[in-house]
Write a structure and sequence with these properties.
- With 265 residues, the protein is an alpha/beta fold.
- It has 2 domains: 6-143 and 211-256, Rossmann fold (3-Layer(aba) Sandwich); 147-204, no CATH class.
- It contains 12 helices and 7 strands.
- A 7-stranded mixed β-sheet has the order 3-2-1-4-5-7-6, sandwiched between helices.
- Helix 9 packs across helix 10 (193-205).
- The radius of gyration is 21 Å and the shape is globular.
Length: 265
């Protein structure tokens, strides 16, 4: 039985498609803007990866010796990430993060908030936990390219088929097998069935998706006082990305009493 309930779905399909035993494959599947952003962080930064999945980003951070904590709504994903990379993980909801205000030096939301019921509220929650002077990496599905059409039309047929036991063999024959073969050929035999299956479910079956124009995300940033340091349109990819900065807290002028006390000394 295929579940379309988010919590159950992400436990059944934790998108575990990165080999855990080598740093090179992890780096290879991370986007260039994300790698560049991580490499620009201070080595002592505390990084929270919100929506960490099985830990591909945590693995990259861990191998750089950085302090990092992952959060995901899938207990299975959090367990895989902790087992592989020996970094703490938390099971939680992107819309109600179990972290105090201004706790993180850096926040990563790599292809996550577009899978929530309210992407803007999820963005605000991620922003809340970022320290003044901190930085955030945000990647979301864009509203252009082929993927929105693929999810809405072929994807709708696939999701409908998976809800009926009699149709699942047809979905496997007409969609999952061809999808695997394409990936197998393109990867020159490196893509496994399991990895291709996880990608298939991520692209076509995931129960909640929003496609977000650049202007919408930039409006959110304006509302939160977020400064956009850089933008990458994600040419050839399904996502576009934003590197954001939270302004440092303004230094308050000393009080009159403090000034008088200093003068007396």
């Amino acid at each position: 039985m295929e579940s379309t309930e988010p919590d159950t779905f992400y436990d059944q399909h934790p998108f575990d498609w990165v080999p855990p035993d080598s740093s090179e494959p992890i780096r290879a599947v991370l986007s260039a803007p994300l790698v560049e952003w991580i490499e620009s962080l201070a080595p002592t930064a505390l990084v929270l990866d919100i929506g960490c999945g099985p830990g591909r980003v945590l693995g990259f951070l861990a191998r750089r010796g950085m302090r990092c904590v992952g959060l995901d709504r899938s207990r299975v994903s959090v367990g895989l990430a902790a087992e592989r990379y020996h970094r703490p993980g938390v099971v939680g909801d992107n819309l109600h993060l179990p972290f105090a205000d201004a706790v993180a030096d850096a926040v990563i939301s790599d292809g996550v908030i577009h899978h929530t019921e309210d992407p803007q509220a999820a963005f605000v929650e991620n922003w809340r936990i970022l320290k003044p002077g901190g930085r955030m990496y945000l990647a979301v599905y864009k509203d252009s390219g082929r993927y929105p059409w693929l999810y809405r039309y072929p994807g709708a047929l696939i999701r409908a088929g998976l809800r009926h036991s009699w149709a699942r063999p047809l979905v496997a024959l007409l969609a999952r097998v061809p999808y695997f073969l394409v990936h197998f050929i393109r990867s020159r035999g490196r893509r496994t069935w399991g990895a291709a299956e996880n990608l298939f479910y991520d692209y076509f079956v995931t129960p909640q998706v929003a496609f977000l124009p650049r202007s919408v995300v930039e409006d959110w940033c304006t509302q939160q006082g977020a400064r956009v340091l850089s933008y990458d349109e994600g040419r050839g990819a399904n996502v576009h990305s934003f590197c954001l900065a939270k302004e440092p807290s303004p230094k308050m002028p000393p009080s009159r009493d403090a000034v008088l006390a200093a003068e007396e000394r």
